Amino acid sequence: MADTALHTHQCPSCQTPFEVYLAHSQYFGCPHCRAWIQLNSDNLPFVAHPKTGYTDSLSFVKIALGMTATFDQQKYRVIARTRWGANYIEYYETQTDSGTKTGYQNNSSKYDVWRLQNLNTDQGFWLIQTERGFYFSQIFQSPNPGLPYNQGQELFANFVNSYSLRVTEYGKAYLYFFEGEANELPLINLQNQLKYYRCNYGSSTYTLEIEYDNASGYNLEPYRYTQETAVDNNRLILEAFADNASIQKTRQNAKSLIFARNLSIFVFIGLFILFMLSFGEKKVVFRHHQDFGQLGDTLPKFTPEFELKNQAYLIELEVSLPTYNNQEVYITTELYDEEEEVMVNELAGDFWYYSGYDDGERWTDSQTYTSQYMQVRYAGAYSAEFFVEPKEVSGHLIFRVREAGMIWYYYLTPLLIVLLVFVIVQLMIYWRKLE
Fold first, then answer.
1. Distance between CA 128 and CA 360 in Å, rounded?
2. Nearest 10 degrees: CA dihedral of 74, 79, 84, 90?
3. 14, 225, 195: which is closest to 126 by C-alpha?
4. Which of 134, 226, 232, 254 has the fewest Cβ atoms surrounding its Cβ within 10 A?
């Protein structure tokens, strides 16, 4: 095949110019009006066909006629596409609690068969594009785009006679449209369909296509044998078509998705480490011990002044009540800004200690600790004041102020957001088969 077009023609139906690259091409399907044009005639006779609405790309990789691609260091050009629809029966295996369940189920799909031709030789291959991914056919020698007939016959004879292999898919395919050049029309009679049978062997799928006469219900003749291998990673296709401007943006978007996924992993790990560290021991900047008996009739009681900076703190109140007597106390702690002489925060709670015997077994129930985070807006001197009810209770309290650093719940929302971003991006990568 020549790197440049051998002939340039104009569609006799819609007057759109088109190029022909293969010397043995006899037909051309116009991508604009869908006319089938006969090339081996001076006046370019054509057969007009209705333009269907099924022309959009089947996946995010938008291949087009005339694009070039590099596979295995060989340069290819896209010279044809056939859009097929199929109704088929597919073999399945699923794992259940009782074992492996197998059977056949009805399905339908659309798929494109792109023909790629080597720029330097007569070799080419089919690139099959489905909604689920891509498949490579075997390399063929033009003008015969398939497995050699005898080899295909032998392969399917072996499948039929083998008990270890099964038909994994069979059904009928019908033509939506054809565009590009070919040495034969995909289907001479549009009323006909293709019957096809697929068998898996190793990593390859072997397909037999037979032209089927809808009117009579008879098989006509084998249309083509092909060997196909699934493309595990669609990035291989994007890299192969990277020289085409329309694919470059798609390729960059794919790279951005993978970068975003990897970045979200690192950010999540960092936030999670900080989240766990926020539960660690925090530095005590002030501690005050107070016996309830010392409060006496002079309640409420102030602590000595203590200095706080402009940052977050954890205020803690711990109460110790006698274990020989059931008691309950309600304590309110008010935090004051000494310079402004205003209350800036409050910590309150019930504390109790109860014990007894039930069926000869001793039980206890107690609540002796409460805490609260606070953000100090202005650095300066602070003090705390305690209000205890009832005043006659015995015991003592411990009041502490700790440097909080970053508080654990500050990390919770970012962690959930990053996790959601990761899940969404990973699903996009999975469905686009970018890994």
1. 80
2. -10
3. 225
4. 232
* Spatial distance between the Cα atoms of 81 and 99, rounded to a whole number of angstroms: 43
In 59-203 the beta strands, taken as DSSP E runs, fall at 68-71, 74-96, 99-118, 123-130, 133-137, 140-141, 167-182, 193-201
Give the bridge partners for 171, in sequence order.
88, 196
Query: What contacts 419, CB < 8 A, 6 or more positions away?
Result: 268
Integer Cα distance of 5 and 22 in angstroms: 8
Nearest to 408 by CA among 282, 264, 262: 282
pLDDT tens-place string over residues 320-367 = 877 667 888 898 999 999 988 899 999 998 999 898 888 889 899 999
Q: Which residues of 331-351 are buried (b: 16+ CB within 10 A; e: fewer)?
A: bebbbbbeeeeeebbebebeb
Q: What is the pLDDT of residues 28-69, one digit of tens each?
A: 888 888 888 888 777 777 676 655 556 678 888 999 999 999
Both tokens of 255, joined, read: 């790279």
How far apart (Å, rounded) are the C-alpha atoms in residues 129 and 61? 9
Q: Which residues of the chain have pLDDT under 50?
A: 163, 187-188
Continuous segment of H or E residues that includes residue 152: helix 149-161
Dist. CA 251–CA 238, nearest whole Å = 6
Residue 411: both structure tokens together: 């990390």
CA-based torsion, 34, 38, 42, 46: positive or negative: negative
Q: Is the peptide bond before 304 cis (omega within 30 degrees of 0)?
A: no
SS3 content of the chain, % helix, strand, coil (to 5): 20, 45, 35
288-302: pLDDT as tens digits: 988 876 555 555 578
pLDDT score recorded for residue 147: 56
d(C-alpha 421, C-alpha 260), whole Å: 9
Helix, strand or coil, per DSSP, at residue 186:
coil
